[in-house]
Design goal:
alpha/beta; 8 helices; 9 strands; 23% helix
Length: 330
Amino acid sequence: MSLVDLILPNKIDTEELIEVYRSNYGILYQGDCITFLNALPDESVDVIFADPPFNLGKNYGKNIDDKKKDEDYLIWSKEWLIRSIRILKPGGSLLIFNLPKWCIEYGSYLNAEGMLFRHWIACRMPKSFPRGKRMSPAHYALIYYTKGEPTIFNKIYTPIQTCRHCGGEIRDYGGHRKKLNPNGINLMDIWDTPEEVWEDSNNIDNLEENLWTEVEDIWSDIPPVRHRKYKTREANELAPIMLERVIAMTSNSDQIIVDPFGGSGTTFYAAEKLGRYWLGTEISDVKPAIQRLTDLANGEIQEWESARGKHPKGKSQKQSKSTQLDLFPL
């Protein structure tokens, strides 16, 4: 019996919530997010990641209305937000990915409910287009709250970013450059040597911080999932690198991750790779998520290129020791 079995009621599989996939680490259901959250006990999960529909009129499949009136969208949002707070353990983390327009509203509501604001993370959106008499939108928002002081916060380290054309470093580190790791630290190293990529929050004072580049609250290395080679459904998807970073930052291996908007299964994929337990639901088509998890179980792992692009021809770099997942191809 896995950890997720221990927190579930005896009979969660009903006509409204159907179990469609199970692994040693998690269970995926097909059903409404409210029904799913209602079925989970109080203060039973460690991390909740939510990527709800943005209410832009996009086609997310059957049973999803993505064109509500603003006030109706917010009423519905508060319904799943208050339930998320209920099931989150003290010190647990809640992260929500959406448009800034909605994240402002979410933040106001979470503040009123006593949640602790941690970060507004700007995920850069490349190739955006002008919107009438407004500036071109350049980022999505990822808001990060905890239920009181966080129980877990693992520091994440990212590679030294370089120009995709000339290979030069984008950022000027001034007199501290020689103290950084000369090779940079790619997130692909998470899979083989997690102790080299983020620290145990219990040993925070023992780390030589000047050897690494800590992740900041502007993420410009999250590639959009637009190419048909990687997309598993018509609606938007998130790149695994984003969920890997979120899960590594907010949890340890014996904890439970919940995603009430399962989509193409990226959260569950990342949780499986990092050895976290997980639970989730998707109200519409669950085939993309099931396929992604099945492929992972069979050892099939997609390679992803970061938003930095490939290194220019003629520029050589040392090969990483990681063999399981190449997020930054050389």
